[in-house]
């Protein structure tokens, strides 16, 4: 399944979470150090959040 993290295309297996996408993008450490994750509408999302094909996640 294809999702986007900060505009970077990341491939993960269906059923994986936001945490898995951040690991694949190399951004999990940023979140551990205090940054937050948001969906494309600007809503904060947790690391256990579900993803769908084409989801867009932003780390700020």
Sequence-ordered SSE layout with sheet pairings:
Blueprint: E1 2-5, E2 8-11, H1 18-25, H2 28-32, E3 37-39, E4 56-59
Parallel strand pairs: 1-4
Antiparallel strand pairs: 1-2, 3-4
Shape: globular
Mean pLDDT: 96
Biggest beta sheet summary? 4 strands, mixed
Low-confidence stretches: none
Question: Could you spell the SSE succession in H and E letters?
Answer: EEHHEE
How much of the residues is beta strand, in percent? 25-35%
Model description:
This protein is of the alpha+beta class. Strand 1 and strand 2 (8-11) form a beta hairpin. It has 2 helices and 4 strands, in the order E-E-H-H-E-E. The protein has helices spanning 18-25, 28-32; strands spanning 2-5, 8-11, 37-39, 56-59. A 4-stranded mixed beta sheet has the order 2-1-4-3, with helices on one face. The longest helix has 8 residues, at 18-25. The mean pLDDT is 96.
């Amino acid at each position: 399944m294809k999702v986007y993290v900060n505009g970077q295309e990341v491939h993960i297996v269906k059923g994986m979470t936001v945490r898995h996408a951040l690991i694949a993008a190399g951004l999990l450490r940023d979140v551990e150090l205090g940054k937050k994750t948001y969906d494309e509408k600007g809503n904060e999302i947790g690391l256990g959040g579900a993803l769908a094909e084409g989801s867009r996640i932003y780390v700020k």
